[in-house]
Amino acid sequence: MTLDARSFGARGDGLTLNTQALQAAIDAAALQGAELQLPAGTYLTGALFLKSGMTLRLDGGATLLGSRELAHYPLLPTRVAGIEMRWPAALVNVYGEQDVGLVGEGCIDGDGQVFWDAYWRLRAAYEPRGLRWASDYDAQRPRLVQVFESARVRLGGGLLLRRSGFWTLHVCYSQDVAIDDLTIRNNDGARGPSTDGIDIDSSRRVSVRHADIAVNDDALVLKAGRDADGLRVARASEDIDIQDCVVREGAAGITFGSETSGGFRRVRVRGLQVQRGVPVGVLFKSAPTRGGRIEDIHLSDITLTDVPTVLRVTMNWNPGYSRALLPPAEAADAPRHWQVLATPVPPDLGHTEVSGVRIDGLRARGAHAAFEVDATPEAPLRGFRFNGLDIQARRGGHVHDVQAWRFTRSRLQLDAPIALGPGCELAGLDREHWVADPALKRRDVSAHSLAEQDLL
């Protein structure tokens, strides 16, 4: 059975606020187990909540256009950037539901410029107060699509998602989510801060196929909670399968972190193309207070074209954002989420352990550096396996704090060798590919993270 949203009063004139009419249509479709059709037109709306047992289909030429009024996105309990707090609803929400579809060849447009501008104003006010880390949480901006505590959800079928106010598609505390044939364009007209593409957050059995992504921060990213709050929740992102995706713009092709507290395991990424303009191909990022364990990660058939850094690992990513230190002058009036963010994590719980990473069949052309790897002596990166690498780069880059890294059938054409930190092992590489220097000083991680910081 198919219902037409116009029969419930929805008007696609781009001017009428359709929130009530569209929600009534959604509720009716759920009661009847029906598909709700949105015909061609531009439907201005605030937050919508899809319900169990129904599908929303956007026809070609149909656009859900997000309201610019923050009041049209009610505050709800959720997780944002690694902590649980109340936050504005997304434009389209699957919130505590199951057996839901969001498909079609239409468009969901967040019209996010007003929210981007508000963020930059708040951040400019916060940074002199030592509150850079709080600005992302206090500048409340609607995500475009949220799947939260839900199961058996399918999204795609040709959908275009664009101009999100914050993260574009956030899958959190959910399972059995299938994403297929999705285009994300967040840099149309301007470049919004933290406009991630697809964030898979403490969820399991999530598949992503045929996503074509251009954003201004992480494109495809795994997350699992931040610091003390993430360690409390302790939910991993696991059994994730990503295939045949293209990243045209973003902070990296595939990102793990920086919210790593619950850990990642059994992640497969295949057939990923990363194009010119993306600064990093494969990125692992965390912080000294994150903790978590990353294991059983398999990446294969990765193609990087004019991507400056092939593999970057940093365990001290963007300290101004990652380290939530509450200035004494702000402590008396600190809201609860500031206190949560600033809760200390014991050093032994703060180390992120990474092991069992395998990368097969990665080809890179036009790279500046093959490796920029900075872990810690307390938690070295163990047991990485590289097979069938074919990398051309100006520099080998540097590798610190790794153990038992092994290369097989790999071809590295480097104008300058890899600078290898004390005690590191790169088995299987010819001596011409690396140089050991006991006096090698650790690079300032914040310096080579500037490109990422600028994206926020």
TrEMBL record:
Transmembrane segments: none annotated. GO terms for molecular function: hydrolase activity. Gene3D superfamilies: Single-stranded right-handed beta-helix, Pectin lyase-like. Keywords: Glycosidase, Hydrolase. SUPFAM superfamilies: Pectin lyase-like. Pfam families: Glyco_hydro_28. Coiled coil: none annotated. It comes from the Bacteria. Belongs to the glycosyl hydrolase 28 family. This is Glycosyl hydrolase family 28 protein. It comes from Pelomonas caseinilytica. The lineage of its organism: Bacteria, Pseudomonadati, Pseudomonadota, Betaproteobacteria, Burkholderiales.
